[in-house]
Amino acid sequence: MFTSSLGKKYIMALTGIVLIGFVFVHMAGNLQILLGQEAINAYAHALQSLPMPILWGSRVFLIVCVILHAWTAVVLIRENRAARPHANEIEVTKRAGLASLKMGFSGITLLLFIVFHLLHFTIRTIYPEYDDLMTTVGSPNEGEIHDVYSMVLAGFNHLWISIFYVVAMFSLSGHLAHGFSSVFQSLGIRSESWGKKLDLAGKAYAWSICLGFSIVPVLVTIEKFGFITFFETSTYSFPVALN
Amino acid sequence: MKLILKIWRQDGPQDEGDFEIHQIDQVSEDSSFLEMLDQLNEQLLGEGIEPILFDHDCREGICGTCSLTINGLPHGPENSTTTCQLHMRKFSDGDTITIEPFRARAFPVVRDLVVDRSAFDRITQAGGFITVRTGSAPDGNALPVPKDDSDLAMDAAACIGCGACVASCKNASAMLFTSAKAGHLNLLPQGKAEKDKRVLAMVSAMDGAGFGNCRNYGECSAACPKDISLDYIAKLNRDHAKAKIKKIFS
Ligand code: FES
After folding, report:
1. B231 touches chain A (CB under 8 A)
2. Total domain count, chain B
3. Chain A contact for B245, CB < 8 A?
4. Could you tell me the distance, in angstroms and rounded to a whole number, from the CA of residue B65 to the centre of ligand 1?
5. Between chains, do A6 and B100 touch, taking CB under 8 Å as contact?
6. Both B197 and B222 in a single domain?
7. Which residues of chain B have pLDDT under 70?
8. Do A91 and B239 touch (CB under 8 A)?
9. Are B148 and B176 in the same domain?
10. Residues of A in contact with B176 (CB under 8 A)
């Protein structure tokens, strides 16, 4: 089923669907930080307290999708290079857009980003101090829970990290813009009559996701330079080690 | 008009190949691109230089024999046109024109601008036919075909198998050709019966010939002299998935 050239495209499309859906759910979850410390902490705590099989099942499933997606891409690109050993003297592109031509580049950026992001906020090896951020705000009972709100504000308090996140989200929007409509083409449910609308929907989706993810680091950064006070980070005292 | 031609020369499949520069004068604006090359070859013969080899046959845009990548574009700058139907009035006096063979591993260069496109024949031989005995033509309306289907099948059948899709594809994929040939038959009642078998066989012949994988760029359709639509690729993707699934459960 998946060994032929088309089979590999099916893998790209099917894992792509999972990841396209995942970024939306992740973004919607993130945006709760705009509602305040209580909302995001409670949400994060609820996710963390999901039953083991569900929590780890979905984590493993997502990672398998990313690995399959990336690995198949590597195989496809290698085969494609081999299929055209001699470049044209003059290389002309008539129809393909930048986003589609740069899927490899945006893909690699995203892969690096995913590794960094997991080490940053999930496994927390980059700043192990984040582990010590505990609070009762947002806790379902009186017990202390992990203070995700403070961690995110502290995380984006570093300018370079915010920039890296936003750059990665631009890559993501490019990757989604081509990926979204490609899913339909590769699975054979696209036609040129509604393809134009599909491409537009893909672009709209891509940009909304990019915006939804970028808004948090952008707000924190603007606040850091004193233009607005949205999160009121100044009234909020980070543990010294975090700054 | 006067032109500078930068033309690919290659002695054989094993040869490295390189560009050669020739100047040509007094080209008529009304001549076709191939007539201009004829004129150049006359000139080269006069100078004692080997003429340049290129493919051509009907010279009326229906056989798919002519090829050439002209200034980076298979079949040249004019849309929906084969090289033989391209006229020199599309160029200006003093232009430098770069002429290369169609480039793909599956299309090895035979000599100069001539490439071996028999990989397409192997795809067609794998399933681009129906297995009923041919005989005299059946009665006009003995087999009802809805107009929409026959139109779509005819659009796919317009493919002349020139290979511009492969040459324009940055991945040298043959999906547009294969999907047009399969789609043309799969849409008609005569071809439907063997649809699954055909699709699987043609895709595997395509993969075996060393073409690349489609990345949905759409360059093929933009280069196609017959404007074959990307819809046939989508249809082949769908039909192939269905055929595979049926095979697993049969
Ligand atoms: S020579 Fe027949 S199509 Fe150009």
Report:
1. yes
2. 2
3. yes
4. 5
5. no
6. yes
7. none
8. no
9. yes
10. none
Residue-wise pLDDT tens digits, A136-150: 888 888 889 999 998
Q: Which of A83, A87, A94 sits opposite B171 (nearest CB)?
A: A83
pLDDT in tens, A88-103: 999 999 999 999 999 9
Residues of B in contact with A86 (CB under 8 A): 103
Residue B13 sits in the same domain as residue B84: yes
B5 beta partners = B22, B97
- For the entire predicted model, the pTM comes to 0.93
Whether B28 and B84 map to the same domain: the answer is: yes
Range of the domain at B10: 3-111
Assess whether B94 and B212 both reside in one domain: no
Size of interface A-B (CB pairs under 8 A): 134
Q: Are residues B187 and B100 in the same domain?
A: no
- Residues B128, B98 share a domain: no
CATH 1.20.1300.10 fits A5-242, yes or no: yes
What is the chain B residue with the closest CA to A81?
Answer: B171
Residues of A in contact with B155 (CB under 8 A): none
